From TrEMBL, chains A, B:
Cofactor(s), names only, from the UniProt record: Zn(2+)
Binding site for Zn(2+): C78, C81, C118, C121
GO biological process, one term: negative regulation of DNA-templated transcription
Cofactor binding notes: Binds 1 zinc ion per subunit.
PANTHER family recorded: HYDROGEN PEROXIDE SENSITIVE REPRESSOR (PTHR33202:SF22), ZINC UPTAKE REGULATION PROTEIN (PTHR33202)
Family label: Belongs to the Fur family.
Coiled coil regions, renumbered to chain: none
SUPFAM superfamilies: Winged helix' DNA-binding domain
Keywords: DNA-binding, Metal-binding, Repressor, Transcription, Transcription regulation, Zinc
UniProt xrefs under InterPro entries: FUR, Fur_C, WH-like_DNA-bd_sf, WH_DNA-bd_sf
Native source organism of the sequence: Streptomyces gardneri
Claim: Chloroplast is one of the keywords in the record: no
Protein name: Transcriptional repressor
Length: 122, 122
DNA sequence: TTCTTGACTTGGACTAGGTCCATCGTAGGA
DNA sequence: TCCTACGATGGACCTAGTCCAAGTCAAGAA
C-alpha cells in the first residue's frame, strides 16, 4: 500500500459514487499533486480485480468506478443529465431468463441499467 | 436513400447481428469500396435516431449496432469471447424496481446484460 | 439544356479515453 | 552501504468516435 493507492481508495469512498477515471485522477491530484494518470488507471484496475470496486459503462463513453461492490445492486441513470443512483430491485434478475433463452450459456450475472428522467430533469 | 445508406442497412440485416461501426464499415467497403467511415457513422446515427437500430455497449469498448429493434429484447454476452445473443426474459423488467428505489425518477426503460460463458468457452 | 440549390459524402484533422513502456525512485534485505 | 524489486512516472501511442471544409450529385427552376 503506497500513498498513491491510498489516495485513490480514499477518493472512491461513499455511497452513490460513480466517478470516471479522469474524475478520480483530478480528485487524487488535489491531495497528491504528483500522482500520474497511469497510476490511477493501474490502481483502479487492481481494485476492480480485487472485487473492491465495480466498473460500469452506462453511456459508452468513459467507464465509471463504483466502490459499492459488496452489496449487489443495479443502476438507475438519468437519460438527460447522466446522474447515477444505486438501486436494489426485488428478486433474482437471473430467474426471469428461461432455460430456452440461454442458448447453452452458463449465466452467472445480470447487469441492469434502468433509464429515465431524474426529478431535476423531468 | 443513397447507395451508401442502402449498403449500411443491408450489412446490418439478420438476427443476432451485433456489429461494431468498424465492422459495418469493413463489410460496407466490400460492397461499395469508396464508402467513408464518417458516412457509416452518420448513417448508423440516423438509423438509431429513427429507431431502426439499437446501440449497445456491452464491454465499454466499441459500441455495437443491433438491427433487431422492433421486438424488445435483452442481451446475453459471453464473458470470455464476447459473443452476443438476443434473449427474451419473461415479465416486465421495470416491475421489480419498487417505488422506494426510484428516487423520484420517471423510469421508462431497463437494459439488461446477462453475462456468463457460452458453450464453446465453458 | 443549363443553372441553382441543398442534401449527402468524403477524407483528413482532431479529441477523449485508455494503454504501453522505458525509466526513475524508494523501501527493504543482504 | 549496496542491491533488488516493485511501484510510480510521464510521454508516446492506440482506438473509437466526432467535426468540418470541400467535393459530388440529383432534382427542380429557368
Amino acid at each position: 500500500m503506497t500513498s498513491q493507492r491510498r489516495v485513490v481508495a480514499e477518493v472512491l469512498a461513499g455511497d452513490h459514487v460513480h466517478l470516471t477515471a479522469d474524475e478520480v485522477h483530478a480528485r487524487a491530484v488535489a491531495r497528491l499533486p504528483e500522482i500520474a494518470r497511469a497510476t490511477v488507471y493501474n490502481t483502479l484496475g487492481e481494485l476492480v480485480a480485487l472485487g473492491e470496486v465495480v466498473e460500469l459503462s452506462t453511456d459508452g463513453r468513459a467507464k465509471r468506478y463504483d466502490p459499492n461492490a459488496h452489496r449487489p445492486h443495479q443502476h438507475l441513470v438519468c437519460s438527460d443529465c447522466g446522474i447515477i443512483r444505486d438501486v436494489h430491485p426485488t428478486g433474482d434478475p437471473l430467474a426471469v431468463l428461461p432455460p430456452g433463452e440461454r442458448f447453452g450459456f452458463s449465466v452467472s450475472k445480470a447487469d441492469v441499467t434502468y433509464r429515465g428522467l431524474c426529478p431535476a430533469c423531468s
